Amino acid sequence: MKVTLDSKAIQSINLFQNMTHSSVVDCITEEGEMYVVVAQGQYGLTIGKNGTKIKNAERIFKKSIKIFEYSPDVKCFIKNIIPECQEIMEEKGIMYIRVKQKDRARVIGKAGKNIKIANTILERLFGVNIKIKGSVGSFSE
Q: Which of 11, 48, 136, 139 has the greatest number of C-beta atoms within 10 Å?
């Protein structure tokens, strides 16, 4: 999937890459937060020892920054974005995920913010959306 970035996003990505020495796959800025997808295997490099690189980036950008590690496998990438995910099933371009009931509110976020960001990133990179199914049992039941 091809991602189109505006000049402000490109400037942010360049600055972030120079600060962290990591490769950025995608970047979204929304409501005072920055969501950055870094290349596979570069999560630790991006954070830095004791979180120094990411803390410095947050100070410079004056935003909270959330980092996600890219994976070419959509299911693995979903688990990187939503670690609470228990099970994933694909059906007609929609990825249905199952999470524990106690994690459901955190995964969705206040006013659906977390799930909207996850969907935006997945749509841009893979052309799919996620939906949360019930939390008991498995999809095959």
A: 48
